[in-house]
Specification:
- 2 copies of one chain form a homodimer.
- The first copy, chain A, folds into 2 domains: about 120 residues, Rossmann fold (3-Layer(aba) Sandwich), CATH 3.40.50.2300; about 90 residues, Arc Repressor Mutant, subunit A.
- Helices cover about 40% and strands about 20% of the residues of chain A.
- Chain A contains 7 helices and 12 strands.
- In chain A, the strands form 3 sheets. Chain A has a 5-stranded parallel β-sheet with strand order 2-1-3-4-5, with helices on both faces. The first copy, chain A, has a 4-stranded antiparallel β-sheet with strand order 6-7-8-9, with no helix packed on it.
- The longest helix of chain A is centred in the middle third of the chain and has 17 residues.
- Chains A and B meet through loops of A and loops of B.
- Chain A binds a DNA duplex through helix 5 and helix 7.
Chain lengths: ~220, ~220
DNA sequence: GCCTATTATCACAGTTATGTCACAACTATC
DNA sequence: GATAGTTGTGACATAACTGTGATAATAGGC
């Protein structure tokens, strides 16, 4: 799938240069010649995957555009800043961008940064999030209410199995089969203990794993 | 950010002259009065951004210093050579420098060349910095909390591979494949040992490499 | 409210994964 | 070919995880 990138710069030559390189790298591009146009275009094309904003632009400068978009979107933004020393100290307002590239820059660098940022943003999004719970399958990490939680392998597999079967009642036997293996002969107590440990570690989200008396357990976010 | 330049020349007058001009141009300078001192100073100050080496120096001549530094660093080097015709043909040994300036030269020329070289080198500067850790891909150097850290090749490759895959869990098998090669059959203990050595050398930043029990390791700056 | 079946909790010992160390083999350099 | 640095490996230590039975707590039926 080709990603689409909005390039906002008032210098036509620069815009075309950047657009050319990005298109050669396989991206679709949309150009804006001032801040207002950039904002308006992004509003009309919510499928834009990344924005490159020059700081110095008429009507609205890059920071203002960045700020306005950040109010409602987490789309990745790269700022093109002047090379002077002021860029070192970012004021409170001058935040919210994902990358900063100082002019002058080589087009190769720009493309490399864009590639990296796109990858970071879109490729690695295997994340489950519901209620207080967040599971990142790439990092094999779990957080509850933004607090990292360390799970053992069995606990992690239990949790992900529950998530895959949200709202379904799962018997201890099913769990023994899926988590421990078909040929494993564990006791119900084994399951109980691991469920217990998992609930403990999940803190407030522990209540998501409910006991269904006589049948097993059920994962449900209330 | 001000760049730092090391000037190595045995003639005090020349050293001061060059240093003055460079400082007026906004650089920090460090002076060495012979080759050995130059090499030692560069070792102690891995933040030096460019070296100017006179060829004719006591203890170690400029080429020897250049050669020694090139073994482990890609830092830009300007050689000051005598004006005789021999300099036209560079022998195999007389390589590795980025610029050659023949004496006598005008200070203006020197500053211009320095500016150009600095720009050329660091415009595409590839530096990774996060938390206590700083990796300079150009120099192939690593510092932790501003303290230079010496890594072996395997350790360096491990670290950079982790950085490229920040926050991702990487299995021992993946590491063996990427760092040691597809057809390599190492044991898990090999990986563990190198991870261990890397963590040790990274001092406080060693905790950035986390063990994910049952899966491998993960690089993450907390 | 009592009884019983079911589930929760706990401590402990067995198991497994990882950390650490020493050493010999290897490499590059002089 | 001597030297210092690097590397891979196995042995062992350490830490983390796991399963189990004993016991406590609980829910639901009566």
């Amino acid at each position: 799938m080709n990603r689409t990138i909005l390039i906002a710069d008032d210098e036509t030559r620069m815009r075309i240069l950047v657009a050319d390189f990005l298109e050669q790298a396989g991206y679709n591009t949309i150009e804006a010649k001032n801040g207002e146009e950039a904002l308006s275009l992004y509003g009309k094309h919510p499928d834009i995957d990344l924005l490159i904003l020059d700081v110095m632009m008429p009507l609205m400068n890059g920071w203002e555009v960045c700020h306005a978009i950040r109010d409602y979107s987490k789309v990745p933004i790269i700022m093109l800043t002047a090379k002077n020393t002021e860029t070192d100290e970012l004021t409170g307002f001058q935040k919210g961008a994902d990358e900063y590239i100082t002019k002058p820059f080589s087009p190769m660098i720009l493309v490399a940064r864009v590639n990296a940022l796109i990858k970071r943003t879109y490729m690695d999004k295997q994340v489950y999030s519901k209620g207080l719970l967040l599971v990142d399958y790439n990092r094999i990490s779990v957080t509850v209410d933004h607090v990292p939680v360390e799970l053992s392998q069995t606990e992690y597999r239990l949790l992900t199995f529950f998530i895959e079967n949200e709202q379904q009642v799962i018997s201890r036997e099913q769990l023994l089969n899926h988590i421990w293996g078909m040929d494993y002969f564990g006791t119900d107590r084994t399951v109980d203990t691991h469920i217990n440990r998992l609930r403990m570690k999940l803190l407030a989200a522990g209540t998501y794993i409910q006991t269904v008396r006589g049948h097993g357990y059920k994962y449900e976010v209330k």
